[in-house]
UniProtKB/TrEMBL annotation:
Keywords: Metal-binding, Repeat, Transferase, Ubl conjugation pathway, Zinc, Zinc-finger. InterPro entries: TRIAD_supradom. The lineage of its organism: Eukaryota, Fungi, Dikarya, Basidiomycota, Agaricomycotina. GO terms for molecular function: transferase activity; zinc ion binding. It comes from Serendipita vermifera MAFF 305830. SUPFAM superfamilies: RING/U-box. This is RING-type domain-containing protein. Residues 1-58 form the RING-type domain. Pfam families: IBR_1.
């Protein structure tokens, strides 16, 4: 994610969700990763000033709602950062079907994408569909 202020890459500080825009090349802007509230408003101990949707918020519900654009950014970011499944069922119709590690299939797809000019297009599409569960 980029800095909400200057759009540069972020550097995480401390062991929690406090982010700082890269001090060497960025603007130094600090904010909460969970709710995007400026860190200058919450500080390290006042959790009542985080937005309602933040896991650190300690105030009464509805007292500090996040701006609508902030909520949509948070939802999109969380959706994009969902971890992939560890394994997929190779043949879901069969009881106790074989399972395959998703990392292995993604590595295979990446390899073929890098070398796809060497593979016939029909075989490539079938192989890719197979490993993405659309066989």
């Amino acid at each position: 994610m980029s800095c909400p202020k200057c759009k540069r890459q972020l550097v995480k500080e401390d062991g929690y969700d406090r982010f700082t825009c890269g001090p060497q090349v960025g603007c130094g802007y600090q904010f909460c990763w969970e709710c995007l509230v400026p860190w200058s408003e919450v500080g390290p101990h006042d959790h009542s000033r985080h937005y309602d949707n933040c896991k650190y918020y300690s105030g009464a519900p509805g007292k500090n709602p996040a701006p609508p654009d902030t909520i949509s950014i948070i939802k999109l970011r969380r959706k994009a950062l969902l971890p992939p499944p560890k394994e997929v069922l190779m043949n879901p119709e069969e009881e106790g079907g074989d399972k395959m590690d998703v990392g292995e299939s993604q590595a295979s797809i990446s390899y073929l994408q890098a070398n796809k000019e060497k593979a016939p297009s029909t075989k490539w599409r079938r192989f890719k569909s197979f490993f993405q569960g659309r066989w």
